[in-house]
Amino acid sequence: MPKKPEPPDRSPVIETYLNEHKKRQKEAQQGIDYRSAMRRGQLTLWTFGSLVSKTLGKSGGLSSFNVHEQLTLETFIAVESATSFRRRTFMMTHLSYLEHFKLRSQPFMEHASSDSLWKDSRMDEGLSRLGYLVQSGVLGLVTGASGLGKSALLKRFMAEQSPQHCLPIYCHLAQLPSNGLLKVILTSLGENPKRGKDKLYSQILERARRVEGTLLLVFDEAHLLSGEALVDLRLLVSSALDRGPSLKILLAGQDHLRGTLKRIEYTDIVNRISVRYQLRALTKDQTHRYIDHQMKVHGGDVKTFDESAKDQIHEFTGGNPRSINNASIACLMSATGKGQLRIDEELFRSIQNELVLH
Asked: In the predicted model, what is the mean pLDDT of the chain?
């Protein structure tokens, strides 16, 4: 049997698509549930290649990828199949705290449904500003450190929009080359991308004309956008202003996105920004109420975490919601193992070292 060729550097489009879509599949509107298909035994290399090809705007299915890209796809499927048993074992072992604390569902999940998301003054202010963007703005900017809730804010905002007023198109594949990014937008809009950047521009603008309300392109992880992509998005907005369709752009990313936009080559983009919002960490009081909210919404007792434990969690995490989630789940698992129904300061201190990477 001939030996398979060793792949050189993986295709950046395929590599980025697999890695990013794997993490955010449930968030993206254009997502395909590959894992569910695998569990049903329906996902072959040919099927998977066809799905990825279609989403990237290619024709020809699996044959549209070269041999090294096909090896990347094949490896992805093999890894997913090999880890499925370990994933089921983890679920059975570590989610037993649901029964211990009589929870209806799992709290402190990052990918929560929009109706169960935490609501606080930070989110309310952010929603207000994004509402202004749709009504009167052109380009919006939301920034904040990792884990503060930018994606949750975007999810709440998009869930509240009616298609007659605003059609938000969510894109998290910010690492894609500029042309790939434009193709993903068109695919999300149900269009078949054409060849050539000028034709991609025209397709997006033409599609925007057919939208009943405002077409809002939402780019999560925007700090990963290349310089070329940022310039292309600015040109897209400028073309929309000149030629009529109601098209607006929202960039959401980590704090250093602001530093990137301060460069002189992005002056035109900055001048177009009509809405800016900096997402901050939770205060101590908000951390307390966030933990109580998570327990209550999922059927638990709001007194599970006592005040001293919540104080310690806030101090340890700095009010970062994602870190609070991780710390709280670790507490629930530890309490289950010890047969405790209350989480106090002592229990938190016993698991604190587990949360630190040494």
From this structure: 82
199: helix, coil or strand?
Answer: helix
Dist CA 106 CA 329 (whole Å): 9
* 122 closest CA partner among 286, 253, 258, 250: 286
**Residue 5 DSSP class:** P
Q: What is the DSSP letter of 253?
A: E
What are the residues whose beta carbons fall under 8 Å from the beta carbon of 213, sequence distance 6 or more? Answer: 162, 163, 164, 165, 166, 167, 246
DSSP H or E stretch at residue 136: helix 121-136
Q: What letter represents residue 148's amino acid?
A: L
Residue 176 dihedral angles phi and psi, to the nearest 5°? -65, 150
pLDDT band at 215 (very low <50, low <70, confident <90, very high): very high
Q: CA neighbours within 13 Å on the CB side: how many for 79?
A: 9
Overall average pLDDT of the 62-69 stretch? 70
Rounded to whole angstroms, what are the CA distances from 215 to 153, 194, 278?
18, 20, 23
The pLDDT tens digits of the residues spanning 310-350 come to: 999 999 999 999 999 999 999 998 999 889 999 999 999 99
> pLDDT, tens digit, for every residue of 265-306?
899 899 999 999 999 999 999 999 999 999 999 999 999 999
Token pair of 331 as six digits: 């507490």
pLDDT at position 40: 46
- Host H or E run for residue 231: helix 227-243
Q: Which residues contact 139 (CB under 8 A, 6 or more apart)?
A: 133, 237, 248, 249, 250, 251, 269, 272, 273, 274, 275
* pLDDT for position 34: 44
* One-letter identity of residue 309: A
- Cα separations in angstroms, 193 against 26, 50, 190: 24, 16, 9
Kindly state the tokens that stand for 71: 């090896």
102 secondary structure, DSSP code: T
Structure tokens at 99: 């029964």
Structure confidence at residue 173 (pLDDT)? 82
Which residue, 250, 235, 172, is CA-closest to 205? 235
